[in-house]
Amino acid sequence: MPLPHVVIVGGGFGGLSAARALRHAPVRVTLLDRRNHHLFQPLLYQVATATLSPGDIASPIRWVLRHQKNLQVLLVDVTRIDAGARQVVVTEGLPISYDFLILATGASHAYFGRDEWRPFAPGLKSLEDALDIRRRVLMAFERAEREADHDRRDMLLTFVIVGGGPTGVELAGTLAEMARRTLREEFRTIETSRTRIVLVEAGPTILASFPEKLRDRARAALQQKGVEVCERTAVTHIDERGVRLGDQPLAAATVVWAAGVAASPLVGTLGTPLDRAGRAIVEPDLSLPGHPEVFVVGDAASFSHQNARPLPGVAQVAMQGAVQAARNIVRRMAGEATRPFHYTDKGNMAIVGRGAAIADLGFLRFSGFPAWMVWIFLHIFMLIGFRNRLSVLMQWALSYLTMQRSVRLITVAPATHVEREIGE
């Protein structure tokens, strides 16, 4: 009799955790992903700001799971889930049948109904996004160096980050350090120290998930680095000329979107109720209502059984949920009742820049250099592969000692409409 077939869609934190949790289970596991690598997203902004190389934060999924004998990895693009037929439909080849499904597809950018802003304000979810942003940032300085018009030069040296969450804060702080320290002696026409970094948050405060005391320290650290922090400020328009903050236009050549996320469109094919962010509303055990063989975890799931609000879209939620889903599959196979998922919050951290970070570990809250050191070693520990850990540690040490970023490469890409407008 063939072993039950478990299909996992997504090779991120949730997908890998689910696969590993099933390594000794009497099942066949197939992991599907459109990319061949697992990406350590918390450090993606460091690729975008030329501190790390793509290979430092990404590892081939096949290599990560190479020792798991009951698992097969397939590089495919999943188009929809046919829950009624228990099949995963892919772009090439026949549908893949399953006995159990774990959907761990993560999240994508959400522009709050203004998708026309996307070409002018890229988000940061993939290596391609990070390399695109890195190219835009570095090209802005290069164009400013040869720009004779004062107003256009100011526009090129203005960077706007939309969204005051951890990604936006980390980007803003790192860009400010790049402009004021890394590049300050490399240009002759422009003074990179006059670069304008604007962090925009529509809500009442940046880093809303942190305690007020830590938010205040992060805000002060950003302002000390020269970042303009604009809270309670809504972006009402974005185009090739920059942004509009309320009724006030702000000319900026580079805009980065870090404001909103939505579940993968694949979740919408499940035919189940969704929340406002497009996440599937799941049962306490993370299964899909009406389909106990389907489990949804991480950013794809709306889980509010433990708290009044859905759980945050962080790696720990995806990893813990995926392990629980895998265990519930094993229980269901054994004829046992599944158990509800209980998330354990292990803390929250954000880096503000060189030697500055904030940490909320629940039992302990601190900031500054100690928090920065804890942040570094925690992320080194979570990286997959010894080579990645060693490479990142060396790059960080070099960056800290010399204030340089060694991956300032402008990759070749077809000029976008935005770049043509700015370059003319």
Structure overview:
- The radius of gyration is 22 Å and the shape is elongated.
- The protein has two domains: 5-34 and 76-110 and 261-333, FAD/NAD(P)-binding domain (3-Layer(bba) Sandwich), CATH 3.50.50.60; 115-259 and 347-423, 3-Layer(bba) Sandwich (FAD/NAD(P)-binding domain).
- It has helices spanning 13-21, 44-48, 61-64, 127-145, 150-156, 166-182, 212-224, 315-333, 369-382, 386-402, 417-423; strands at 5-9, 28-33, 37-39, 58-60, 71-75, 78-82, 87-90, 96-97, 100-103, 107-109, 158-162, 196-200, 227-230, 235-239, 242-245, 248-251, 254-257, 261-263, 280-281, 287-288, 291-296, 301-302, 348-353, 356-360, 365-367.
- It is built from eleven helices and 25 strands.
- With 424 residues, it is an alpha/beta fold.
- Strand 23 (348-353) and strand 24 form a beta hairpin.
Can you give keywords for this protein?
single chain, 424 residues, alpha/beta, FAD/NAD(P)-binding domain, six-stranded mixed sheet, 11 helices, 25 strands, 31% helix
Short description:
The chain is an alpha/beta fold and 424 residues long.
Largest sheet entry = 6 strands, mixed
Compute the number of structural domains.
2
- Level-2 CATH architecture of the largest domain: 3-Layer(bba) Sandwich
Average pLDDT confidence is 90
Please state roughly what percent of the residues sit in beta strands, choosing from under 5%, 5-15%, 15-25%, 25-35%, 35-45% or over 45%.
15-25%
CATH class of the largest domain: Alpha Beta
Total helices: the number is: 11
Q: Tell me the radius of gyration.
A: 22 Å
Amino- and carboxy-terminal Cα gap: 67 Å
Q: How do the strands of the widest beta sheet line up side by side?
A: 5-2-1-9-21-20
The general outline is elongated
CATH topology of the largest domain: FAD/NAD(P)-binding domain
Structural class, please? alpha/beta
Low-confidence stretches at least 5 residues in length (pLDDT < 50)?
414-424
Helix content: 25-40%
What is the total tally of β strands? Answer: 25
